[in-house]
Amino acid sequence: MSLRHVLTFTALALACAGTAHARDAAQTGSEVVRQEQGNRVSENVPTIPAELLERLNRYQNTRGASFGGWTHDGCLLIATRFAETAQAHRVCQPLGMREQLTFYPEPVNNLTVAPAPANGFVFGKDVGGNEFWQLHYFDLATRQVSLLTDGKARNQNPLFSHDGKQFAYSSTARNGRDIDVWVMDFATRKARAVVTDGGTWSAQDFSPDGKQLLVIKFVSAGESYPGLVDLDSGKLSMFPIDGGKASISDFRFSRDGRAVYFVSDEPVDGKPQEFRTLRRHEPSTGKFEVLSANIPWDVDQLALAEDGKHLLFVSNEDGVGKLHVLSLPQHKEIKLPALPVGVIGRADFSPDGKRIALAINTATSPSDLYVIDLASAKLARWTRSEVGGLDSTRFVTPSLIRYPTFDTVDGGARRTIPAFYYKPAQVPAGTKLPVVINIHGGPEGQSQPSFNATAQFLANELGVAMLVPNVRGSSGYGRTYLSLDNAEKREDSVKDIGALLDWVGQQPELDGQRVGVYGGSYGGYMVLASLTHYSDRIRAGVDVVGISDFTTFLNNTESYRRDLRRAEYGDERVPEMKAVFDRISPLKNAGKIASPLFVAQGKNDPRVPYTEAEQIVKAVRANGQPVWFLMFNDEGHGFQKKANTDYFGAAMMEFWQRHLMGGE
């Protein structure tokens, strides 16, 4: 779950109907007061105080913008929210007016602009967060929308050929389980499956002549397999992988078609590589180059200009994005203007190759769009997203800390875990701050220093510090670190939270007796697991769409993603692995949870089914512990509708005030 969805506000969604007194009284595990209001189901969630709603209001009215691509008239296609959900907009000049183009109750995603001579874009849309996205085409000339996919399957990863005549996408349409690659003749809208080898596949790039298609099979964060499809014959040829297994992504043809660029952590000259580097290979000559060898961090994305004169890539350096642009064919890095320090979202060249648009999200400002003019090396800001009228100079910038954990690395030194530390400003001498530990999902995800309305409200309004660790298994810190929590090593990442609790107890400004844990998806599992091990040191926990039992999760998650999750967590069909799951799953250890718990869930979640939430709520209540439960019938894996995120954010803050800060 993304934190940008946690704190946005509408007063309408927070109208608290009926039975308020009874609900306020129902704070023990033995009594359950259930209320259904519209699409919201809650149990034991008390009335939200008006004073808290007032303080939250502006923090919940922050919003950002993401980049969807360049239109042919030099405008930027963006996604941002002005009502309940994120919709497509167009901006045609720096800080210009935003023209809203789509108006749906469900959010849109996968924005992809069609190349000329077409004049439009593709977008994806699901129903109630079920993630069975349907791809649609929006014609900018006529403002008409047409459905491209079958209306039933899960469809994603849209990609046009360079001339716009063909359109590739990933779909479960064939059997509902495998994610195949399909290619559509865009004029006739007739599609055919071109990769049906089983597993999870995506199209990466069409060759300049449109006769070949680069594809990748994704197995896990550390394992993927690239291939090439001849679109006339349908033949799929797989590329060899040095070392047999590697993480490979962002496969692109050079504009002359002679070479491919890609990102990989394959061995180089027989030497293992920790990080994913940008590489170029020329099959006809065998020439091979590593273009980012001097950067000891992962490369996250790359793009090539259509005129073939430049290439861009983004390196992820301790969580901060760095943009690099190379002139072609020399691969010489060119001068760029200074950029705001933060997280770089999608970046791409304008159709004429003369400009670059990119989204930048900083710790003190939501994601906004910037444009770089390559000839002048000048930067222009194109959007200025709202921060609810708040004084952004008061926002807290996190510091990066590293704390020691339980094991050692080469040489015997203690391994350290990186974490971002949001500390309230102007803390009076002698004050000990309550702490919320925010654990990311994935599990291969990475927390980065992006704008976080939750952290800002906690720091500025409640005087609560937030720690955001990247425990072992997080991406961005090398191949070895990524694999340290796999399968039977799963609980080693939980031990990293125990080590963070130790670190908190050693800080004079932090209150080790008032620590809460919060996380979504896999982070929700980490909350529950931390509570089973450290309830004596954790005062309360908030679990959002979290896994409570790995066996039931793997049995009930959607079939198209089951093998993907087995590759990361382990296979419950193997008796030895099943025994590990039985030992470590929070549901099997619910009797050890002795702290108040808040569980929030989307009813339509295809990844972590709502039954994972229901079963842990029932089990923890059997301990006599107070459990708040909240479920939205029109949401899936996380909350995307403003009214829902507002209500959840307010309820969570009330939960922290009661159970973390000593209100109860």
TrEMBL record:
Keyword Cell cycle attached: no
Keyword Hydrolase: yes
Signal peptide: 1-22
Any Pfam family hit: Peptidase_S9
Domain of life from the UniProt record: Bacteria
A GO MF term: hydrolase activity
Keywords: Hydrolase, Protease, Serine protease, Signal
Coiled coil location: none
Domain Peptidase S9 prolyl oligopeptidase catalytic: 449-660
Protein's name according to its UniProt entry: Alpha/beta fold hydrolase
